[in-house]
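Slide 14.
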Amino acid sequence: MRIGIDARLYGVSDRGIGRYTEKLIEYLEKIDFENEYFIFLRQEGFNQYQPKNKNFHKILANYRVYSFKEQIIFPFHLYKYKLDLVHFTHFNVPIFYLKPFIVTIHDLIISKFPDSRATTLPYFLYKIKLIGYKIVLKNAVKFAKKIIAVSEATKKDIVKILKIEPEKIAVIYEGVDLLKISNSQCPISKKIENPYILYVGAAYPHKNLERLIEAFKKLNQPSLKLVLVGRKDFFYQRLKEYVKKIGLEDKIIFPGQVSDEELASFYKNALFFVFPSLSEGFGLPAIEAMAYNLPIAASDIPSLKEILDDSAIYFDPRSVDEIKKVLEKMVFDKNLREKLREKGKKRIKNFSWQKMANKTLEIYKNYVAKK
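Slide 15: predicted structure.
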């Protein structure tokens, strides 16, 4: 079988979709020596990805995600390789691609939070983009041979919001690998004196970082710092301006996008991890934190409660006072942190990139069997 994988987000490691795509390909290379794979990458990923299995071929497809070229030119690029099946690892399936495909849906955050604060576009253009998003998403789930959801919570959202029959959706959890820590110094994290609370991820409005910052300010602990790791962009810049405005620039640290080695160092040295999102499909950074034996405080949204289970302490993400109360408990209750560490050691065994790749390959094979 000739299988294509849309890996245009490969190498964008600060986004969960990028990490998911990298790990899917990495582990498929280890288990599948029968099918032939064509990996479609943008320039950054093309330079980074080096196939380790002779059946895997990298193809330059330098079409920006969410662009007109993606929708109009990319499908003809795919047709050229006469693929039996394409796996789109994100919902942005070209509407003119009419051959068999499966799609992974990570979340429906834009459907649930159509917030113009989550874009740098003018309001009018954002509304046009939103219409385009809805058309592309509905096309993707309607014509996909199978939909992969990364959690039961995401599956429920797909069924409820997009009116898709549950039988069409397979839930496959993401996995986790310990990031390698090099012997060299990790200069950014070494400069931060303990203790610090850690967050890893983007700064979009649904990530709820302003409320986290307000809660941290109310905590009023002079020796404590808050570290927010994520790629520097418009949203992080806006957040930094807010932090400066409220006089916390010496207490809240923005390292920007860091290497895997540096990220591992942040995970290993934090007091605990906090995840205040209003919505998540899976919550990969929380699982990575758990892999480093880091206790977790998280919002009580369905996906995080499903994934983290009893290995985290939860708060209402819309209540600054409740976030502050939980942060305070985590700072001062060492027994609680140790209890969460122990629960995390057990919970982390449920998540494996190997399992994810095996289950995904089964979906590919099932398609062939039904063909």
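Speaker note: The domain at 187-350 is CATH 3.40.50.2000 (Rossmann fold).
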